[in-house]
Structure formats: C-alpha cells, structure tokens
Amino acid sequence: MSTSDRTIVERATTVPRKRIGLYAVLLAMVVLYLLPLETGLFTAFKTQSAFQTTIPVLPPIGNQFTIGPWGQALDRLWPALGYSVAFVVPATAFSALFGSLAAYGLTITKWRGQIVVMLIFVAGIFIPYQAVLVPLTRFWTGIVDIRGLLGPEGSLVALTITHIAYGIPICTLLFRGHFKGLDQSMFEAARLDGATIRTIYRRIAFPLAIPMFAVTLIYQFTNIWNDLLFALVLVRGEYEVVTMALQSFTGSMVGQYNLLMAGAFITALPTIAVYVLFGKQFAEGVSGGGA
C-alpha cells in the first residue's frame, strides 16, 4: 500500500471517530437540557400517588396517567392568563415602537446632544428592577394615584406603562444597531428628494426594520410575560397576572407537584408559541438578514 493510500485510509477512519465524539457530546447536551423538561412534563401527567411511588424521569403508565392536573391548573390560571395578555401585548408593542422611533431619531437624524441622550438610554438598560421598586410604588400611589383614577383596573395600566418605560432603552439600543447597519445613502437620497423625517421613517426605515421588530417583540414579550417582581409590587386585588397566580400555587398546593408542573407549562405556552410562530423572523433579525 502506497503512502497516499495509507493517508486516505487514516483520514477515513479518523474523521468518523471525531464525528462520533462530536455527536456524543451533542447528545449529552441535548439530554442535559431536555431532561428537566421531560421530567416536568411526565410529572404533570402523573397522579399524585404515581408521583410519590415512581421515578420522576419515567413516563406514567396505565392508571398512573391523568390529565386532571392540567384541567385544575387551567381553571385557576384562566382569568390571570387573560389579564396577562391584556397588559403584555400593548406593553410589548409600544416599547418596540417607541424604541424604534428613538433609535431612528438618534441614528438617521443629526442634532445637538445626541450622545448625551444616547448615554441616558444606555444607562437605563443597567438599572435593576430592585433599585426602582420603592420610587415606583411611591409614584403610582402618591404622585399618580392610578387606582384612584381608574379603579382596580389601574393596576394593569400602571404595570403596562412601567414595562413600556423599562423596555424602551433596550429596544432603542437594538434598533440603533440595526439602523446603523443600513445603507445611509438611501436616507440621504430621500432627504435630497424633499422627504420629511416622518416620511423617511414610514416609507424606508420602518419597512427595513421589520426583522428587528420581530427580535424586539419576541424579547419584550418573553421578558414582560415572565415578570413577577413588578407585578407583585404594582398589582392589587383581583387583577393578578399569570405569574402571580402560578406563584400562589406554591402556597396553597404544597406537595402537588403534578399540579405545579401543569401550571408551569400552561404559563410558558404563550412564550413557546411566539417563538415557534416567529422563530424564522427572529433568526433573520438576529443575523441581520433583513438589513
């Protein structure tokens, strides 16, 4: 056998071994990430006695299987799901829209003081939720008595406005990066043709920012939907959102892990649905494919 033949044989045996190792690592990572989900899903379909007598990672068999926890969890979470949708959708849409407008004004147009305003937006991203809880409570109870003005529904309005304000800085930063990647000659040509700032945004900037809208909408929807801290501080009375309703399971349903897991999956379903429906647009926006 010649040297070249031995080289070919060595490559043919070496490459599959490398791939086997790669596939083994990937498989281990898949198992590592999916095992908690698989365990939680099986737990949600088990009876209480089956959960206590079987290994959590094993599926329910025969009379161990039940959909009862899903029905109980849905009955308890249903009103809260509606309240969450009522405030998450406008908070997501308006934070993305205002973020795109702010980024457009900070990128495409030129005016004095842009850098200072941009630094304020960047600083807003790094303010932790915990740092504003007391001022936020004082604002919505002392300065603007939103519940006195609108009644119990005012809690959801306050939560919506708070999330819009908190989401604008990160949306602005994302849209600014997108706008800076666009061909600036398009905007200059539009200005030379007499187009106003509003027309340029509506006819050029907004259509080209659709992929980034997908990114910001998914990010904001997930972030706001999963928030519990602001909701605990601002929401009072019967208008508790879904994370608050799920959190109440731990106080009243001690030991009923099948009910807890069913409630957790029901709470997570809207965010999973958003990723499944808009995953392609999200990938295009992250990769800059729409630019």
Automatic annotation (TrEMBL):
- Transmembrane feature ranges: 20-37, 80-103, 115-136, 156-179, 200-222, 258-278
Q: What is its main location?
A: membrane
Q: What PROSITE patterns does the entry give?
A: ABC_TM1
Say which domain of life the source belongs to. Answer: Archaea
Keywords assigned: Membrane, Transmembrane, Transmembrane helix, Transport
Topology of this chain in the membrane: Multi-pass membrane protein
Domain ABC transmembrane type-1 intervals: 81-278
Q: Which GO terms describe its cellular component?
A: plasma membrane
GO annotation terms (biological process) = transmembrane transport
Record CDD domains: TM_PBP2
Q: Which family does it belong to?
A: Belongs to the binding-protein-dependent transport system permease family.
Q: PANTHER family of this UniProt entry?
A: ABC TRANSPORTER PERMEASE PROTEIN, GLUCOSE IMPORT SYSTEM PERMEASE PROTEIN GLCU
The protein in question is named Carbohydrate ABC transporter permease
What is the scientific name of the source organism? Halococcoides cellulosivorans
